[in-house]
Amino acid sequence: MHLLIAGGTGTSGRVLARRAVAAGHHPRVLTRRANQRRSDGLHLMHGDLTTAAGLDEAVDGVDAVVDLSNIATARYQPAAAFFTTVTDHLFAAEHRAGVGHHLTLSIVGVDRFPSAYYRAKLDQEAAVTAASARTGVAHSIVRVTQFHDFAALVLARFRLRRLVLAPPLHSQPVHLEDVADHLLAVLAGGPAGHAPELGGPQPLYVPDMVRRYAQKVDPTARVLPAPLLGAARRANNAGALRPTTGVRGERTFDQWLTEAH
User: pTM for the complete prediction?
Assistant: First the structure.
């Protein structure tokens, strides 16, 4: 299968590209840099998701497009504008090129946990459904839980000197290789609308994850749970961020810790 991975230079995109090659597929990775071929054989296609520049060439000849693109903000307006704009640009290019399948990565609990960023992801899901109906390009939306790598992100971003305030979330995190394999399975099965969601093999408390990761890479860090109030606290305590249906990955957080460095 010939794939275009939008957001393919990010954390999840790099793993998906590698697993796709291992499974015998032919992925292209969308980047703002000029077209080139990397030493690992991946073809980097130049394109800008926010302006649509280069997208027609990038999607030409592919069977499916996987949208893993993201924006580094927790604010609703810029996140919603980014996700809906990118979705419309990709579907328009896919329609012109005759692409048969558009897959968008989303988040388990996005419709249950009150968050500005999650509202923007819900807008993205709605934009995908509308664009699919408008253009005739079939779609799949795949919700997954937080990645194991979230522990490293929290340690890096939510600290002041030795103190780390970790979000006190009850999650069921999943290994990125399990995410990639699940996305490839959905692609192989054909467009599914809302595909089965994916969660990790065990429920975990995010501050505990961060604490265990810190013990390995920065034992001086003091990890404490940050406050969570109101509707967010109630949703979190009710398990809003844990999967209720779908499939489960096999790779554990302990395995990720062994691999992490």
Answer: 0.93
